[in-house]
Write a structure and sequence with these properties.
This is Amino acid ABC transporter ATP-binding protein. By secondary structure, the chain is α/β, with parallel strands linked by helices. It has helices at residues 40-47, 75-82, 100-110, 116-129, 145-157, 175-190, 202-208, 226-231, 236-245, and strands at residues 2-11, 14-24, 29-33, 55-60, 63-67, 85-88, 163-167, 195-198, 211-216, 219-224. It is 38% helix and 25% strand. The structure holds adenosine-5'-diphosphate (ADP) and magnesium ion (MG).
Length: 246
């Protein structure tokens, strides 16, 4: 189980997350939806502690880190928790001077200390999973955006994280290329990969998520199944936002 409890996040005087508590059950997919600036990226970055919560608790599996305005867990604990997560960004962020396989191998070799041989075997397995077995030795510049994002997904999965965090994974892609990425994430969802996705992509949310969370102005407004949130929202604010996605 992955859980956030009573998370507050301030940047200077401005509080951008207000008392967010959410459970992300193992083996399930959660889609975070909400207007630009509502706090989706900050929330994702709080799960892997790229942002330090001002206060609250972050739990992943057996690791539980408690933050208060006056005390923070030590760096080793933070890195330990972060290593249980994988992150995919809107803009792919591949290393341009590494091939597809080398991008996937990088963290295994430099962070986990795997041999290059072992890391390459794992990289080829993962590239096969994202349908890129034949592009292992291509440079990022030789790949389409959809292919680059699939390499980024393989890279994030390489160390077998407990949760895959995706920040608008299809937003930078043309519809056709976005579809390849939706297909790959849907297949991962069917296999039981635990994922949290921030997205404006209705098809992605509907194809993958068991849980949809609507966030507005840094607070959770409504949580439900895709059918509940998309077809029968309880809050007027949710209904208005859903209209804008269609
Ligand atoms: P979303 O991903 O939903 O568009 P964000 O999490 O990026 O929203 O942003 C939420 C709010 O936090 C916005 O008002 C944004 O300007 C603010 N914010 C995000 N990151 C920072 C930062 N590093 N410093 C100051 N304000 C930030
Ligand atoms: Mg964002």
């Amino acid at each position: 189980m992955i859980a956030l409890k009573h998370i507050h996040k301030r940047f200077g005087a401005v509080e951008v997350l207000h008392d967010v508590s959410l459970n992300f059950p193992e083996g399930s997919v959660t889609a975070l939806i909400g207007p630009s600036g509502s706090g989706k990226s900050t929330l994702l970055r709080t799960i892997n502690l790229l942002e330090t919560p001002t206060s609250g608790t972050v739990e992943i599996g057996d690791s539980k880190l408690v933050f208060t305005p006056t005390s923070k867990p030590d760096r080793t604990a933070v890195l330990g928790l972060r290593r249980q997560t994988g992150m995919v960004f809107q803009s792919f962020q591949l290393f341009p001077h590494r091939t597809a396989a080398e991008n996937v191998m990088e963290g295994l070799v430099t962070v986990l200390g795997w041999s290059k041989e072992r890391a390459r075997i794992r990289a080829l397995e993962l590239l096969d999973k994202v349908d890129l077995a034949d592009r292992a030795d291509a440079w990022p510049s030789e790949l389409s955006g959809g292919q680059q994002q699939r390499v980024a997904i393989a890279r994030a999965l390489a160390p077998s994280p407990k949760v895959l965090l995706c920040d608008e994974p299809t937003s930078a892609l043309d519809p056709e290329l976005a579809e390849e990425v939706v297909d790959v994430l849907s297949a991962l969802a069917r296999e039981g990969t635990t994922m949290v996705l921030a997205t404006h992509d209705l098809r992605l949310a509907q194809n993958t998520a068991q849980q949809v969370v609507f966030i507005d102005a840094g607070a959770v407004v409504e949580t439900g199944t895709p059918a509940e949130i998309f077809a029968n929202p309880q809050q007027a604010r949710t209904a208005r936002f859903i209209q804008t996605l269609r």
